Amino acid sequence: MNTKKKFLKRFSIKKISILTDKATILLTINKYSFIIDKLFNKLILKKILEQAFNINIQKINTMRLIKKKTYKNTLYKKIIITIKKNENINLFSKLKK
């Protein structure tokens, strides 16, 4: 299995969309938030998300989540992606209205 398929498989398992109050406010300005595995970088994420959702990403912000006392390292990253105004992700199209 090549590395691209491994990343796609791992992304599909670990991807969680965030639907908090702040995240729903970000939906109005075309910013979407996800929790992903910590091994991804911005370049890989951009390729995966553009292929998976058929969108053009303008910007990606990443941040590590606060680590718990039981873990030595953080396990996940939080990402916020910004897309163009005329595009949307089908997962969130009902919430955006």
From TrEMBL:
GO terms for biological process: translation. This is Ribosomal protein L23. HAMAP family: Ribosomal_uL23_B. Belongs to the universal ribosomal protein uL23 family. It comes from Pteridomonas sp. YPF1301. InterPro entries: Nucleotide-bd_a/b_plait_sf, Ribosomal_uL23-like, Ribosomal_uL23/eL15/eS24_sf. Pfam families: Ribosomal_L23. One of its GO terms (cellular component) is ribonucleoprotein complex. GO terms for molecular function: structural constituent of ribosome. Keywords: Plastid, Ribonucleoprotein, Ribosomal protein.
